[in-house]
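Schema walk-through. Below, the input block comes first and the output block second. Nothing else is stored per chain. Lengths vary across the set, and this one has 331 residues.
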Amino acid sequence: MSRNFSLLILLLAIIISIFVVLTGINNSNWNDKSSYGQYYFSGLNQKINDINKIKLSQSDNVFEIAKEDDMWILKNKDNYPADNNKVKANLISLSNAVKIEPKTEREALLNKLHLEDPFVSGSKSYLLELYDDDNLIASAVIGKRKPNLLKRGEFGVYFRETDGNKSWLVSGNLNASDGIKNWISTRLLELIPDDISNLTVTRGNRTVLKFGRDPLDNNKFMMMDFLEGVETRTSIGLRSVMRRFLKVDFRDMRVAQTYSNKPDTVIEILTVDGYFINIELNNDLNSPGAWVSVVSTDHPDQIKNIGYEFYLDENYKEEFIIKLEDVLKIN
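--- output ---
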C-alpha cells in the first residue's frame, strides 16, 4: 500500500469522524427545532377550567391565588377578591404560550434571563405551579419578559423547566408575579369627575374643601361654602384636581388596622347615582406613604374594600390629598 493511499484513507477517516460528530450535534439541535411552534404546556388549554390554585414561589415567599365558589381570591392578602379577568388572562397566556427559541442550558448564564434558582435569596425568577386541588397540572420557572417579540410589538417570556436547565423563549403577554397589580385592579377609585356630585375633604382643623355642582350649570364644578371673598380655580381647574385625586393607584393592601388617633384626612364622596363612599387616610409611621380605607359605602364596586386598607406610596399620597392651595385661583 502506497504512502499516498494511506494518507488518503486517514483523511477519509477524519472526515467521516467529523461528520458523525456534527450529525449528533445537529440531531440535538433538530430535536429543539422540531419543538418550534409547539405549546410549552402541552394540553394545558384542555385543563384550564380545572385549575383552582396558582402558586408563585420566590426565595422564602409563596404567593397563592385560589378559586373558591367561582371567585379567585388572594390567599396571602387575607382572601381579598382577585380580578377574575386578570387571572383568566394570565391562565390563557400560559395555555397559549408557544415555544419560539431554545435558550441557554448553562447554569452560569441563566441569571441573565432571570431563570436562576427561584429559592435562592435575592432571586428574580419565580416558580409557577398550577394545581387542580392538590394535583400539580403544570409548572415552570418564570424569567423576565422580552418586549417586541419577533419585531411584532408583542411580549415574550423566558421559561425554564423545573427538573433541569433547558430554557425557552415563549410567546405570551404573561404578567405573572407576586405583585398584586398582576392579579387585581390597583386603582383605588374607578371613577371620573363626571361620576361625582359632591366631594368633601376634611384635614383636621384646616379649611374643609367641598366640591359641588354649579346650580346655574350642572356640568360645572365649584367650591361650596368656601372662604368668603377668596377666588378659586375655574371648573376646568377643579376638574383637573379631582382627576388627579381619582387616578391614584395603591401599592399594597392588608386588613384594616385600628388607629388610636383620628385619621389625618377624611373624604366623603357622593356620586351622581346617589352612592356614598366614606374614606379615611392615616399616615404610615414607618414610611412617607399612607394607608387608605373605605370605612363605609353602598357603592357596589367599593363594598368589597370594606375591612381592608390600601397603601399609597409618597407620590400617590401627595396626589390623593387635596390641599387648600390646590383649589385657589392661579394668578
